[in-house]
Design a protein that fits this description.
Length: about 625
Amino acid sequence: MCGIVGYVGKRQAAPILLQGLAKLEYRGYDSAGIAVRDGEGQAEVVKTKGRLSVLAEKTDNGNALKGTCGIGHTRWATHGEPNQKNAHPHVSGNCKGSGSGVVESEVVGVHNGIIENFVELKEKLLKHGYQFYSDTDTEVAIKLVDYYYKKYKMGPIDALSKSMMRIRGSYALEVMFKDHPGEIWVARKDSPMIIGIKDDEAFVASDVPAILKYTRSVYYIGNLEIAKVSQGEVHFYNLDTDEIQKELTEITWDAEAAEKGGFEHFMMKEIHEQPKAVLDTMNKVVKDGKIDLSEVGLTDEEIKEITGITIVACGSAWHVGMAAQYVFEDLARIPVRVELASEFRYRDPILDPKNLVIIVSQSGETADSLAALREAKSKGVKTLGIVNVVGSSIAREADNVYYTMAGPEIAVATTKAYSAQLMAMYCLAIQFGFVRGTIDEKEYSRLISELETIPDKITRILSDKERIQWFAAKFADAHDVFFIGRGIDYAISLEGSLKMKEISYIHSEAYAAGELKHGTISLIEDNTLVIGVLTQSKLYEKTVSNMVECKARGAYLMGVTGYGNYSIEDTCNFVTYIPKVDDHFMTSLAVIPLQLMGYYISVARGLDVDKPRNLAKSVTVE
Ligand code: AGP
């Protein structure tokens, strides 16, 4: 996820672009850049690695660049390390060095989204004499526009339309053509973009916060639409290059609400971004119904040789490992250990040389997880990182990396990154099983088809969130909450309990349901909330029995289970039903109501949901 801005009008563009990018930095912050042109002159590009402040300093807050038409970008790397040459804007010509300075190029542009077929497009362009200076999919898109612009000589609309017909993926694309001064051309598919208008000025942005300071009058450009943005004017076109009319909309949000996409907190916004995060992470490796790990870098031969897996992580990432161990062992019949990084790093672990150590980390900078990675490498064991931040320490130091595609996660309590990590694990486990022959072609296809239903099922659960909100309010003053389950349901309980603790400050424990009678059940008293996770068919009755034991001691029971298990209402005081998917993948669905429970209780208690006390988004110290 990145942030793009554009301005054309009577004022100097650069300061306006920087101010807009500052409002979008939550969308990405590993590098940034702007391109500004003054009248007929060539665009001048300035790009920097690091936070936006570096770009602002380099351009004297934009005052160093002259021109009333420009575009800008703040990056969250998906293809290509975070560095200056990969930063946007990108140009159709060849770049010496990092690509900053006045550029002799026909097309200059920025992009938010993912070009899924950029490799094949790059090969096509190389055959036509194009050279590439960056590792990004965006540079390919910009050069493709240039290719069609020069080949058919029918102007920007035609060049963009032909490019859109070739590109597969998502994009909010903004380009400037040398021959069309004072104009910004945009094209959109799936990635967000709005176009603001005010007197003789026009603004382009990924999101409302970037332009709210200037105007509340905006156009929402539709999917597969093109627009020409000039001083105070916007013209829209469809893919057939016919002009289309659009309604102007008035924005009613306040600035702060706008940054959160209209949600009250980043956490709720990110909870709602989970379907896309899960889908994009799956599409990273699932191509035409098959799993392709070539980008991850694990070959079939390596997969066949692995004798065991050790999953190492902290917090919620460790909970992903706790769920994934069951999936890997069931599907691939590989022994799996799950270790807390802070324990693993000091225990001089005994590792088989043919083990695979998987380090799971959203930030890729967690000190304990990084140290665990180095410990594993010191023993000569192959390492794989499942990481959300491109170019982070763990991503760079692991032998292989599977990048989750959750985009920047701002709330301290992880939700979409956790869900994306689960999806990455499922894909690995299915592929390991298939390559090692423990699942046949038919089961392979069935399991992949099951994965493909998860995003929509998450959306369906979220459509009923008010019911969780109502229930959560009843327990906002709880002192102790217990989450219990067996197998994968125990792993789900771990994550549900942590979500509750870290944002509502209510003491909570997750317990293997069968273990309660060995001591902890003594803590159950009248009205103690016990949340039973009941997604695993083979263990369902066993866990229900444990819940009944709690009820006999006064507990108030909440059940989380699949549609159809309605008999549970004879046991539970409250039940939240979720759509069913193959039992191996039920974590992805059962965790949603538990995320919502923690969120709503925290809100009911008036706490700082996004920045809970004592915590940091990335624990980069021991
Ligand atoms: C989860 O909500 C917490 N923010 C925390 O447990 C987190 O999962 C843990 O610190 C690991 O962080 P990482 O994924 O960035 O390594």
